[in-house]
Design brief:
The complex is a heterodimer. By secondary structure, chain A is α/β, with parallel strands linked by helices. Chain A has nine helices and nine strands. Classes of the chains: A alpha/beta, B mainly alpha. At the A-B interface, strand 5, helix 4 and helix 6 of A face helix 1 and helix 7 of B.
Chain lengths: ~260, ~425
């Protein structure tokens, strides 16, 4: 009895320490007052976003609003003129290799190696990041992404855009990193696959992954995001929480108003 | 780590161009090594064949000469075989052996016309010559390397995978390095394996084989560096390929060609056939010169025969050999200038090799294989030494008017069977 109590006390203490550490650790994605100028154009102008563990943040904006630039800056491919970016606590410009170990990325147009199968593509890309998933692990991720079994051994040369996207989603799932960046993630997916995808995002969210997606799809964002940031002229002009009960029509109206301003 | 190499290998081998490029490299290398070994075997066979034929020829002349014992006839009609055996690396770089004689039968008559029957020029700078392994390394391997490396980065960019690779790779530097090593390494292997097999068959030493392999690897590094330099410009794959092809054309063909023209222009060298003609004219003029003056000039160089330089009658072998000797001496300065010119051109070729790696690689490999101009001139030097020994052998018979018997043929200097440069001159000191 005494032993059981001691164990329980110890477990509670560990949990408390863990929660304390989680609360005190920096948010997985933290962008503060980011400014990025390309030529004569200021693409990002004082952008600030924080995405916490287990949160889905949708960044909405029109063409040229700076959505993809934001992702490139988070990935360390673009150096900001001023401001701070932290990914899992690392500066992607100063410590790109360490920052990238924290990130999984799903591009809008997923380009894989046509001469490899889905399994081989996943094995290759994950090997690059130092992981070696087994076949059952890959099947689990591909099941979650919704790629049919019979396609998995086939070379991806004949895959549709949606199928490629599913392979990339499986890769992102298997990476098991604290940050997931999504660029127009549902653009190639049919409604059913989109629903599956949203369900998958919720699984990742429950796992504690911080998810930042850039999208045009207001409806899709409202379906799955905890927060939606409206990006216009390089900064967040408004932020809404779909959980607060804003209806889609009102959201459309608000988005139109804010981004046109 | 090995897992990553395995993945990269699979990825590379499944590319459309990879296996055909590697097989082509292997086939070219095999063919060139085979052709080189066959040519060297042919040359060895000629060298071996000439020796019994030489003995047969000599026996026939001996049978005829012995009747009268006339040394003049013996010296006039007896050809003495010389040869330059190929080195164990010659199969890989035939060089001058392709254009200069490796067998020369000489008589005790004037040498220069005999020795300059063929021309010498800077083979390193000559536009593509014989198909040998050095040719494949210098000219063809870079093209295949370009085919495999021109789109190393650009293909990923164009396919849209560059960002994903950048995000997924723990170290992008290690990723690209692995890919370069794999592509260039496999190509180098396809080039080197047939060469190494050829070197073993030809009996080349491990050290020499390793040096040549090292040169090939260094040459590959040069082309890899060029490919990376072009890749830094971030052009499209097609533009990369076109740029690299133009560079290849410039530094393997156009610039060496221009260098050849410039060297030939800057260092005019009389042609060997002109030397031969000049020497023949000098010899023929000897028939019309006063005999006493001819003999006087001869004994100035050969005082040991001063007391034996007189003769009676219209023709005597003493006089004949004297004016033939003087014919050689008459073109002495031209021969020296010809030689100096060839060496100067060769020196400039080596200098060109310092700035043009394809030329440099050929120069070094031909040197190692002893198939360059220096090796050819060294063979000529050995012939001159041998010819001088022949003269020293015949002159005592001619000037002492000693009958030349069958057994005397056996006393003549012999071209050394193995070690060139040393003469089997049992009787060369005889006077």
């Amino acid at each position: 009895m005494h032993e059981t109590m001691t164990q329980a006390t110890s477990t509670n203490a560990e949990l408390a320490t863990h929660l304390l550490a989680e609360n005190s650790s920096p948010p997985p994605i933290e962008i503060t007052d980011l400014r990025l100028v390309r030529g004569s154009r200021t693409v990002l102008n004082g952008l600030s976003i924080k995405v916490s563990r287990g949160e889905i943040y949708a960044l909405l904006g029109g063409n040229g609003a700076g959505k993809s630039t934001t992702l490139s800056a988070i990935l360390g491919f673009l150096e900001p003129d001023s401001g701070v970016i932290r990914v899992g606590g690392f500066d992607p410009v100063l410590e790109p290799d360490r920052a990238r170990t924290q990130v999984a990325y799903l591009p809008e147009n997923v380009a894989l190696y046509d001469q490899l199968s889905a399994y081989e593509n996943i094995a290759y890309f994950l090997a690059l990041s130092g992981r070696e998933p087994g076949r059952s692990e890959m099947d689990g991720a591909l099941d979650a992404a919704g790629l049919q079994h019979e396609a998995r051994e086939r070379r991806v040369a004949g895959y549709s855009k949606g199928m490629r996207q599913k392979v990339a989603i499986a890769m992102a799932v298997l990476r098991d990193v604290p940050v997931l960046l999504l660029d127009e993630p549902t653009s190639g997916l049919d409604p059913r696959a989109t629903a599956d995808f949203n369900a998958l995002l919720n699984v990742l969210k429950a796992r504690g992954t911080a998810i930042l997606m850039v999208t045009h799809d207001l409806l899709g964002a409202a379906d799955c995001a905890d927060r939606i940031g409206f990006l216009a002229q390089g900064s967040i002009v408004d932020e809404v929480r779909p959980s607060e009960g804003i209806d889609v029509l009102a959201l459309h109206h608000r988005y139109g108003e804010r981004t046109a301003a | 780590m090995m897992m990553l190499w395995g993945h990269e290998l699979r990825l590379f081998l499944r590319q459309r161009i990879a296996v055909p490029a590697l097989l082509l490299m292997l086939a070219l290398s095999c063919a060139s090594v085979w052709a080189g070994l066959a040519e060297v075997a042919r040359q060895r066979e000629v060298i071996e064949r000439i020796q019994p034929k030489q003995a047969k020829d000599e026996a026939a002349i001996a049978a005829w000469v012995a009747k009268e014992g006339d040394v003049g006839n013996a010296a006039y009609y007896t050809f003495h075989a010389t040869w330059d055996s190929p080195s164990s690396l010659a199969f890989a770089a035939l060089g001058q052996r392709d254009i200069a004689p490796f067998v020369l039968r000489v008589r005790a008559l004037p040498l220069e016309s005999q020795i300059n029957e063929s021309e010498n020029y800077n083979a390193e700078l000559a536009l593509p010559g014989r198909f040998d392994w050095a040719f494949v390394l210098t000219y063809l391997a870079p093209l295949l390397l370009i085919a495999l490396l021109h789109d190393l980065f650009s293909a990923e960019r164009e396919a849209g995978r560059a960002v994903l690779l950048g995000v997924m790779a723990r170290s992008t530097r290690a990723l690209w390095l692995r890919r370069i090593v794999l592509r260039a390494g496999l190509l180098l292997l396809a080039l080197l394996v047939p060469f190494i097999v050829g070197a073993v068959i030809a009996g080349s030493t491990a050290a020499m084989t390793a040096i040549v392999a090292g040169i090939a690897a260094a040459y590959f590094l040069f082309w890899i560096a060029l490919c990376l330099l072009i890749a830094r410009m971030k052009l499209a794959s097609l533009a990369n390929a076109a740029s690299l092809a133009m560079i290849w054309l410039a530094i393997t063909l156009v610039l060496p060609g221009l260098a050849l023209l410039a060297v030939n222009q800057a260092i005019p060298v009389q042609q060997g056939v002109e030397l031969t003609l000049a020497q023949r004219e000098a010899v023929h003029a000897g028939w019309d010169k006063p005999k006493a003056a001819t003999m006087q000039a001869f004994v100035r160089d050969h005082p040991e025969w001063k007391d034996k330089a007189t003769f009676t009658g219209g023709f005597h072998w003493k006089w004949y050999h004297a004016f033939h000797y003087l014919g050689d001496r008459a073109v002495g300065e031209q021969v020296k200038a010809y030689r100096t010119g060839l060496e100067a051109r060769d020196a400039w070729t080596r200098k060109a090799g310092l700035v043009l790696p394809p030329v440099g690689v050929q120069v070094v490999i031909h040197r190692l294989a002893r198939t360059d101009l220096a090796a050819q001139l060294a063979y000529q030097d050995r012939i001159r030494t041998f010819h001088a020994a022949l003269r020293r052998f015949y002159y005592p018979y001619i000037f002492n008017e000693t009958p030349f018997r069958t057994e005397d043929f056996a006393k003549a200097p012999r071209w050394p069977a193995q070690k060139t440069g040393q003469l089997a001159t049992a009787s060369q000191e005889r006077k």
